[in-house]
Write a structure and sequence with these properties.
Blueprint (H helix, E strand, L loop, with lengths): L5 E5 L2 E5 L4 H12 L4 E4 L10 H14 L6 E7 L6 H7 L5 E4 L17 H14 L3 E3 L10 H15 L5 E3 L5 H7 L5 E5 L2 H4 L2 H6 L15 H12 L5 E3 L8 H4 L14 H11 L3 H16 L7 E5 L3 E2 L4 E3 L2 E3 L7 E2 L2 E5 L1
Parallel strand pairs: 2-3, 3-4, 4-5, 5-6, 6-7, 7-8, 8-9
Antiparallel strand pairs: 1-10, 10-15, 11-14, 12-13
Helix pairs in contact: 11-12
The chain binds N-carbamoyl-L-aspartate and zinc ion.
Length: 343
């Protein structure tokens, strides 16, 4: 007693989050809103969020699901290459950015863009650039699964060059090549997940298959993980925490044809503290989970302080609400930090 180790985080932000809808939203929403000040919410619903009506209604449903907490949902629009300037000008103040998916690359992205050719994207990107709307990209090609992100690097480069005033965020980066690109173009930024700082493909498929660690982009090689971790541990100013927590019901993960997505919301902050403590970099964690994103997206948030304590936390085997359920990363395992209080 008395000499417990504690650590405080101020206004933690999750800059890449899937909250889904209906009962799943009611289940997972509070698991983020309790401990985070805000989150950038992905638009890959069925159907995807492409109109102002759908966007505002979704934001209201999120606020309702998270109403017990001091939490700001930053919603995004699903990219289409034919949004008019007038439409974007009108919706600009309701969104934090627009998320671009190559068609069919991941969950609910069938109506994404069919060609990443700059000319194909130009109409919408020119308007976004003029209006100052950031572009978030799922950067993978249709190539061999381990090479998809690396093969996408020239596309990021061509976009960064063609639209120098457009803020481009490389979402959930998983490779050392993406880290290298970050320093090459002023207008390129990135998010990185918790699980990609921790696991490699070995953890997914090196032994018994681990469906709850299967996600897009797939976890890569040890040298990739090292590059990501080094950038996160020094709180590289162009890198933000984005969990990509992507809940799927248990029966869609533990089956033939496992859905992609790792559910990390309820353990994210505790495990981040554990990881940064292990590497003696706790002094950088607040920048990585909060101030970097505040600067990049120019965010103002009300005060919220999360106090964590070095005390064992047994991760629940499953989270349930009505007919929905989801298995978290580290289900049933013990992690060494817990949430102590939230103010
Ligand atoms: C995400 C999902 O399930 O919506 N899945 C994932 O594996 N990360 C989509 C995504 O971000 O690719
Ligand atoms: Zn995602």
């Amino acid at each position: 007693m008395g000499n417990e180790m504690v650590f405080e985080l101020n206004e933690p932000l999750d800059m890449h989050l899937h909250l889904r809808d209906a009962d799943m939203l009611k289940l997972v929403g509070p698991l983020t809103s309790k401990t985070f000040s805000g989150a950038l919410i992905m638009p890959n619903l069925v159907p995807p969020v492409t109109t102002k009506e759908a966007l505002l209604a979704y934001k209201e449903r999120i606020k309702e699901a998270c109403k017990d907490d001091n939490f700001e949902p930053f919603v995004t629009l699903f990219f289409k290459n034919d949004y008019s300037y007038e439409f974007l000008e009108d919706i600009k103040n309701d969104i934090i950015g627009i998320k671009l998916y190559p068609a069919g690359i991941t969950t609910n992205s069938e109506t994404g863009v069919s060609s990443m050719n700059v000319e194909n994207l130009r109409p919408t990107l020119e308007s976004m650039s003029k209006l100052g709307i950031p572009l978030c990209i799922h950067g993978e090609t249709n190539g061999f699964v381990m090479d998809r992100e690396k093969e996408f690097m020239p596309i990021y480069e061509s976009l960064a060059v063609a639209f120098p005033d457009l803020k481009i965020i490389m979402e959930h980066i998983t490779t050392k090549e993406a880290i290298e690109l970050l320093d090459k173009y002023d207008n390129l930024y990135a998010t990185v997940t918790l699980h990609h700082l921790l696991i490699t493909l070995d953890d997914v498929a090196g032994g018994m298959l681990a469906p709850h660690l299967f996600c897009k982009p797939i976890a890569k090689r040890p040298e990739d993980r090292t590059a990501l971790l080094n950038a996160a541990l020094k709180a590289h100013p162009k890198l933000m925490f984005g969990s990509d927590s992507a809940p799927h019901p248990k029966h869609k993960k533990e089956c033939c044809g496992c859905a992609a997505g790792v559910f990390t919301s309820p353990i994210a902050l505790q495990v981040l503290v554990e990881l940064f403590e292990k590497h003696n970099c706790l002094d950088k964690l607040n920048a990585f989970v909060s101030t970097n994103a505040k600067k990049i997206y120019d965010l103002n948030l009300t005060n919220k302080t999360i106090k964590l304590i070095k005390k064992d936390f047994v991760v629940p085997a499953i989270y349930e609400y009505k007919n929905e359920n989801v298995v978290p990363m580290y289900a049933g395992e013990t992690i060494s930090w817990s949430i102590e209080s939230i103010n």
